[in-house]
């Protein structure tokens, strides 16, 4: 029920309005009255009305001074001024204080009722908007673990938008700009036990490993980030001090040994760990990530006998070219392309990787099959994250038999190309992606904020997903680009407003987010096939 307070120095006015206002029809109640602005302040502070009806000229404190004080106090309710004096200066001051209406006495009963209905409708609209905004914020909180994980992944492998490279970091990660960074790469060994785990089991184990890694890391580095990359790989990012290199090496070694021992003890899984070099710029974190996994792949300096724990050692260009590596960035970009059904991008990534592979000497059949298995594992796990189980498209026996038949890089390229085409065009992938949650949030946000200056970059910041990636996700699920979707929503709302014939074209344009009326008219005609003026004739 809406609460109304009346402030006027004429008792007859107070009594008259209390009598004629249709309280039940408006779902409103009288909560207090006063004969001057000073008493009005006390009444309003005590009763916290939604609507105030007030005179201007009153003893002790006039209405405008009272309103000014209320706004300073943070009162956001609606204010209606009824005054026996009508002049420009009073009206100008009233507008400055965000007054809902300014009318002269005497006021007719129908006019008073009409004004109150209008103001209450505004209150109801605002309440509805607050509720919907609350729902959006609640949804965003639900999505936050998912979308923040995506952002950290991108930061770890170097696929963030250029906007972040300019120093624009999300609030939780702004400390990165003043910290050091070391990437600790974690690779799960696919032994007999690990190979027997189902995808759902892997998901549970990865969750358990994340908890173990977080608990161990916290004891040495209270601030850290742990993120899964794909299939059997994850990365732990820590932010050490730069004072003592020897102490740093000891801390990283001890942390890694505890991690290897704990995962073996509690989960009966074997992991390898690689440690990248420390970077003093957060934009270099991807370099440390690559180094960490290169250390594992090349078996760089083993830090402790009997432990698969390796520290990155920089090699010459010749040494690097002689080794066939499995770049983290490539793996991540392939996983991202597959999750969003970007067939062309996935095909190009594989073609580039196999092209580099073919330049190397001594590529064995076993190595080709190992790469095929690894790449298939990447695609399988990332698609499982997106809600698609590849068992629905391919059996494990089928994949195993096909992998055994791959002996040359070009065969691997052809096999992967065929699989990518089938997966990216499958109905399951396009219809069941968890990214639909993010798109649902985006579309609802657009419908609530279409009148604002809304860009994809704004929503990118809200959901911690890069602008380019978000654009792909949105287009894949809705079939429309973000800008086209926003324009359609705005034009449909403009059409509804024009058909009501209560506003001029320029007013409708402003209401749906366009200050440039000719541009609005052009878009409206392009979308609906007619000019705005033609619609209201």
Q: Radius of gyration over alpha carbons?
A: 32 Å
Rough outline: elongated
Strand neighbour order, sheet with most strands = 7-8-6-9-11-10
CATH superfamily of the domain at 162-315: Reverse transcriptase/Diguanylate cyclase domain
Structural class: alpha/beta
Low-confidence region ranges: 140-146, 318-324
CATH class of the domain at 162-315: Alpha Beta
Mean pLDDT: 81
Strand content: 5-15%
CATH topology of the domain at 162-315: Alpha-Beta Plaits
Major sheet attributes: 6 strands, mixed
* Number of helices, where a helix is a run of at least 4 consecutive DSSP H or I residues: 25
The appropriate CATH architecture of the domain at 162-315 is: 2-Layer Sandwich
Helix content bin: 55-70%
The separation of the N and C termini measures 40 Å
Query: Would you count the extended β strands for me?
Result: 11
Main features:
537 residues, 25 helices, five-stranded parallel β-sheet, Rossmann fold, six-stranded mixed β-sheet, elongated, alpha/beta, single chain, Alpha-Beta Plaits
């Amino acid at each position: 029920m809406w609460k109304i307070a009346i402030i006027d120095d004429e008792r007859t006015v107070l009594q008259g309005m209390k009598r004629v206002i249709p309280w039940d029809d408006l779902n409103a109640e009288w909560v207090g009255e006063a004969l001057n602005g000073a008493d009005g302040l006390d009444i309003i502070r005590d009763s916290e009305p939604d609507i105030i009806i007030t005179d201007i000229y009153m003893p002790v404190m006039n209405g405008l001074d009272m309103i000014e004080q209320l706004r300073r106090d943070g009162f956001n309710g609606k204010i209606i001024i009824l005054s026996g004096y009508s002049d420009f200066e009073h009206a100008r001051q009233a507008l400055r204080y965000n007054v809902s209406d300014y009318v002269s006495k005497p006021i007719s009963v129908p006019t008073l009722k009409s004004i109150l209905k209008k103001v209450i409708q505004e209150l109801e609209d605002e309440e509805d908007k607050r509720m919907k905004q609350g729902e959006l914020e609640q949804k965003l909180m639900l999505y936050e673990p998912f979308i923040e994980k995506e952002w950290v992944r991108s930061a770890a492998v170097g696929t963030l938008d250029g906007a972040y490279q300019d120093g624009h970091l999300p609030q939780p990660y702004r400390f990165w700009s003043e910290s050091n960074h070391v990437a600790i790469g974690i690779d799960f060994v696919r032994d007999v036990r690990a190979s027997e785990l189902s995808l759902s089991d892997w998901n549970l184990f990865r969750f358990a490993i994340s908890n173990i890694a977080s608990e161990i890391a916290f004891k040495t580095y209270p601030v850290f980030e742990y993120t899964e990359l794909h299939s059997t790989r994850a990365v732990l990012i820590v932010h050490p001090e730069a004072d003592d290199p020897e102490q740093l090496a000891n801390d990283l070694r001890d942390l890694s040994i505890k991690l290897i021992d704990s995962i073996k003890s509690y989960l009966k899984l074997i992991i390898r760990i690689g440690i990248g070099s420390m970077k003093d710029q957060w934009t270099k974190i991807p370099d440390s990530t690559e180094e960490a996994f290169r250390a594992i792949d090349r078996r760089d300096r083993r830090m402790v006998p009997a432990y698969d724990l390796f520290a990155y050692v920089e090699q010459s260009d010749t040494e690097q070219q002689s080794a066939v590596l499995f770049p983290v960035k490539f793996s991540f970009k392939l996983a991202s392309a597959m999750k969003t059904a970007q067939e062309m991008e996935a095909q190009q990534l594989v073609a580039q990787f196999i092209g580099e592979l073919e330049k190397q000497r001594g590529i064995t059949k076993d190595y080709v099959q190992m790469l095929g298995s690894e790449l298939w594992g990447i695609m399988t796990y990332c698609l499982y994250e997106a809600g698609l189980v590849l068992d629905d498209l391919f059996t494990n026996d089928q994949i195993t038999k096909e992998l055994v038949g791959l002996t040359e890089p070009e065969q691997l390229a052809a096999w992967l190309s065929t699989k990518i085409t089938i997966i990216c065009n499958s109905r399951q992938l396009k219809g069941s992606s968890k990214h639909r949650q993010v798109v649902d949030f985006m579309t609802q946000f657009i419908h609530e904020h279409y009148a604002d200056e809304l860009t994809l970059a704004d929503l990118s910041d809200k959901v911690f997903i890069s602008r380019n990636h978000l654009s792909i996700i949105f287009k894949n699920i809705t079939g429309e680009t973000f800008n086209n979707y926003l324009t359609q929503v705005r034009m449909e709302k403009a059409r509804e407003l024009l058909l009501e014939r209560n506003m001029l074209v320029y007013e409708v344009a402003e209401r749906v987010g366009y200050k440039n009326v000719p541009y609005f008219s052009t878009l409206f005609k392009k979308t609906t096939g007619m000019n705005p003026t033609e619609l209201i004739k």
